[in-house]
Amino acid sequence: MDIRMIGIDYERFSLEEREIFSCTKQKIINILKQIQSYHICSGCIIIATCNRTELYFSGFEENETGYESFCQALWDTGQYNESDRLHWRQLGQRVVCRDNREAVSHLLEVTAGMRSRVFGEDQIITQVKCALELAREARTTDGVLERLFQMAVTAGKRVRTKVHLTGVKTSVVEQMLLRGKQWIEERHADWGKKAFESIPVLVIGNGEIGRLAAARLMEQGADVTMTVRHYKTREVTIPVGCKIIDYRDRYAFVNRMAMVVSATTSPHYTLLWEEGLNEQGEQTIFCDGKERILFDMAVPRDISPQFGQLSHLTLYNIDDLGGMSVDENHNEAVREAMHILKEYEEEYEAWLQFRDYIPAIQEIETYCAEDIFKRVEKSLKRIVNDEMARKELEQVIETAAKKVVGNMMYDMKNQLRMDEWENYMEMIQRIMRAREN
Fold first, then answer.
1. Are strands 52-58 and 3-9 parallel, antiparallel or unpaired?
2. What torsion, rounded to 10 degrees, do the Cα atoms 11, 12, 14, 19 define?
3. Residue 208 half-sphere exposure, CB side, CA atoms within 13 Å?
4. Residue 157 contacts residue 139 (beta carbons within 8 Å)
5. Which residues of 95-122 are buried (b: 16+ CB within 10 A; e: fewer)?
6. Would you say 30 and 75 are in contact if contact means Cβ atoms under 8 Å apart?
7. Cα–Cα distance for residue pair 273/283, rounded to 1 Å
């Protein structure tokens, strides 16, 4: 096995530190292409989510860690300065590196939601699929990583189907709803209605998370308004019943809201503290003293942290919405999930080992085809007089012989344990060499 993974995740890095490595889809493609241009690996894929940035390499040079190449690729984008470079170097001490089986096992657990901050969440499956698609677009995937990521997605789906990892829905949006409901019940019990019923909510961003948040809030009875960019000139998907405003008008609407949810991929703040300051340096956004709850569900962050320091505002970021632990009730489910993942890990390792034997199988196919041809060559010349027809028939015989032998070898592999298969291959190769001598 020749796989390496380097990772920057929520377990070792704060939200502020993870923001440094956050990437848009186009930036990921550019970084992948840049890494490939260094000729240090045969393939590379980047998983970039709110909780982690992970790079997977195949055919990696032993004298490279991977992190230095990633930092060099970031630097080569031309968007950073020397202080950023120094910061990367300091953070590099905490970057985790996993090789071969450990890297494969980690990816399988990540894709199954077992390494997520919100344990068991299923959004990660889509994110892993997206990582593979971006690598394909950048032309940086190879057979080893292609197979690994496809198998990880399949394993993740099987775990989600077969195993009940948690007792509640676990996406970050569901955690947002849970925190919002608790806040309303604690602070506004006097409203005398269901938690979200009719409360005005502004959702900034109409990407996947924004749309899901808006839809779930409307299911709870909230009065939801969503921002869109240039919605008059391009088609966007908006949940049915949701009001819309132009993104540029968001500051004019936030003071009317009891709740604000921001979930964009923008590298800039959607609610910037300085934007609300008047000439006297007083904050004009949320200045009426009413209690509000804000959810910043983006990395890098969308809402200036200073808003969270105001006594009448409650601000949650992406890290605040995680942390669901595995309790005793989940232990059996976790064991079942790990058993499933172990099966896929062993299947992948067997595939890799078999893949290493492909040149030997092709050699056996050629040997058998040549042996068969020698046995029928005289008969062919006697029976078929036309030289062109004879050569065409010879090609058909060679192709058929290789195919029959190859199929038998593949079937044999499926019937034997790996150690038996290795002994079998060694025996055939010894016989071939003995006959050739």
1. antiparallel
2. -100
3. 9
4. no
5. beebeeeebbbbbbbbbbbbbbbbbbbb
6. no
7. 8
Closest of 270, 262, 258 to residue 318, by C-alpha: 262
The conformational region for residue 296 under phi > 0 = left, psi -120 to 50 = alpha, else beta, is beta
Give the three-state DSSP class for 46.
strand
Q: What is the DSSP string of 233-282?
A: TS-----TT-EEEEGGGHHHHGGG-SEEEE----SS-SB-GGGGB-TTS-
User: Which residues is 53 bridged to in the sheet?
Assistant: 8, 48
Q: Is 173's pLDDT higher than 60?
A: yes
Average pLDDT over residues 146-151: 95
The answer for 136, left when phi > 0, alpha when psi is -120 to 50, beta otherwise, is alpha
pTM of the model: 0.70
Question: Side chain identity at 279, as an amino acid letter?
Answer: E
- What's the count of helices (H) and strands (E) in the chain, helices before strands? 14, 10
Whole-number pLDDT of residue 296: 93
Active site (annotated) includes residue 130: no
Exposed/middle/buried for 301, CB within 10 Å: 0-12, 13-18, 19+?
A: buried
Residue 283 gets which letter from DSSP? B
* Nearest CA among 390, 325, 382 for reference residue 170: 325
Q: Of 76-90, 125-139, 334-348, 405-419, give the lowest mean pLDDT range.
A: 405-419
Q: What is the pLDDT of residue 326?
A: 45
Q: Structure tokens of 49?
A: 């989510």
**Three-class secondary structure of residue 204 per DSSP:** strand
Write out pLDDT tens, residues 180-198.
988 888 877 666 567 788 8
Instruction: List the Cα angle 414/420/424 in 5-degree steps.
Output: 90
**The pLDDT of residue 424:** 84
Evaluate if residue 353 carries a pLDDT over 90.
Answer: no
In whole angstroms, give the CA distance from residue 191 to residue 207.
31
Out of 23, 41, 50, 368, the active site residue is 50
Q: How far is C-alpha 37 from the chain's CA centre?
A: 23
